[in-house]
Design a protein that fits this description.
Helix content: 10-25%
Strand order of the largest sheet: 8-5-7-6-10-9
Low-confidence stretches: none
Number of domains: 4
Number of strands: 29
Radius of gyration: 30 Å
CATH superfamily of the largest domain: MoaB/Mog-like domain
Distance between the termini: 30 Å
Number of helices: 7
CATH topology of the largest domain: Molybdenum Cofactor Biosythetic Enzyme, Chain A
């Protein structure tokens, strides 16, 4: 067996960052910047009001309560040109340009209007409720750095800067294949020996959750020609391919035979449970992940190897989801076997402000229901486990963009 770190290092050595590309801002959510973004404008671009109310000269309301003459109205989008004079006020709406001569805004709740006269109940300081030009971003500011993942707020800022395109590391296309004569996915009643294919949908969903585009390459029966055709179709159109099944020591060797013939693969037995068997390499330079066929093993293998590889190819600087400490609310038992065990668990915050974990259900590698209920993997190093109240390292599941 080899260590988890050795296997992961091998994956990362063959999943280099893709070349940058330019995409519309509207398509950049979840992608990683491949350039620094420097603003050439101020945000906001003009002094504006943070409140509905009246734009005034602060000097005119020192002796409030006082009355001022209403000489106009400024709505958002207006471009006022007439200056406010002594004893005058302009009705103004949130976000509107501060008219010339005004240096404060009195919110509407502190005013009352009688015809063309407004009574101001309180004095206000200079600059009251005014958002000055460049209050958020100044021209020349480094707004975002290369390597920063783009969230919803980032895209809003890019639009505020007037950008319609941005340079990013591209979204991967990842092909997913399930293999095995026993698998069906047509919804028909199962025949003896058949099982329904869950891994393909699970993997496609994990790929999407990781920010990539999943390409469904279908089911491949246990036939070398069929498997080879599916793999060659995948590597021809995808940035990476993920297969499930056919990587264990006892499996029929259809997948192994094909990948060994057409690719440069490494067949690994890793000191972890579940997901001990794992294959990885390249076909025509395209990374190929060979995940185990058991549903839980497939998902755990993706989290430990697939997600880091995807994140690295998509330009993330932090590719490995960090482990954090939590409190075990029950005994997390295991036996000494030379492996790290990854238990499927649920984490919740306790009254002490710390994360607490309990098992999500059965721990068999076929027990997908318990895996579906889990939100963390509890990592138990080789040994006797962790007693209730003890500290355990956990990995958050589905930590896309983390």
């Amino acid at each position: 067996m080899i260590s988890l770190d050795e296997a992961l290092d091998f994956v990362l050595s063959l999943t280099p960052r893709r070349e940058p590309t330019v995409v519309p801002v509207a398509e950049a959510l979840g992608l990683v910047l491949a350039q620094d973004v420097v603003s050439d404008v101020a945000i906001p671009p003009f002094d504006n009001t943070a409140m509905d109310g009246f734009a005034v000269r602060a000097a005119d309301v020192v002796e409030a309560p006082c009355d001022l003459s209403i000489v106009g109205t400024v709505a958002a989008g207006d471009n006022p040109t007439d200056a406010i004079g002594p004893g005058e006020a302009v009705r103004i709406m949130t976000g509107a340009v501060i008219p010339p001569g005004a240096d404060a805004v009195v919110m509407v709740e502190l005013t009352s209007v009688d015809g063309d006269v407004v009574r101001l109940d309180e004095s206000v300081p200079l600059g009251n409720h005014i958002r000055p030009a460049g209050d958020d971003v100044q021209s020349g500011d480094l707004v975002f750095e290369r390597g920063e993942p783009l969230g919803a707020g980032h895209l809003g800022v890019l639009c505020s800067l007037g950008l319609t395109e941005v340079q990013v590391y591209p979204r991967l296309r990842i092909g997913v294949i399930s293999t095995g004569d026993e698998l069906v996915d047509d919804g028909a009643p199962l025949q003896p020996g058949q099982i329904r294919d869950s891994n393909r949908r699970t993997l496609l969903s994990l790929v999407a959750q990781a920010g990539a585009e999943g390409v469904d390459l279908g089911l491949a029966r246990d036939d070398e020609e069929v498997i080879e055709a599916a793999l060659r179709n995948g590597v021809a159109q995808c940035d990476a391919v993920m297969t499930t099944g056919g990587v264990s020591m006892g499996d029929f060797d259809y997948v192994k035979a094909v990948l060994s013939r057409i690719g440069e693969m490494r067949w690994m037995q890793i000191a972890i449970k579940p997901a001990k068997p794992f294959a990885f390499g390249t076909v025509d330079g395209v990374p190929v992940f060979g995940f185990p066929g058991n549903p839980v093993s497939c998902m755990v293998s993706f989290e430990l190897f697939g997600r880091p590889g995807v994140r690295q190819m998509m330009g993330f600087d932090e590719v490995i989801v960090p482990r954090i400490n939590a409190v075990a609310d029950e005994d997390l038992d295991r036996r000494v076997d030379g492996k790290t065990h990854f238990l499927r668990a649920r984490a919740t915050y306790g009254t002490d402000g710390r994360l607490h974990v309990r098992l999500a259900g059965g721990q068999g590698s076929h027990m997908l229901w318990a895996m579906a209920k889990a939100n963390v993997l509890a990592a138990l190093p080789n040994g006797d486990g962790v007693s209730a109240g003890g500290e355990v390292e956990i990995i958050l599941l589905g930590a896309a963009g983390a």
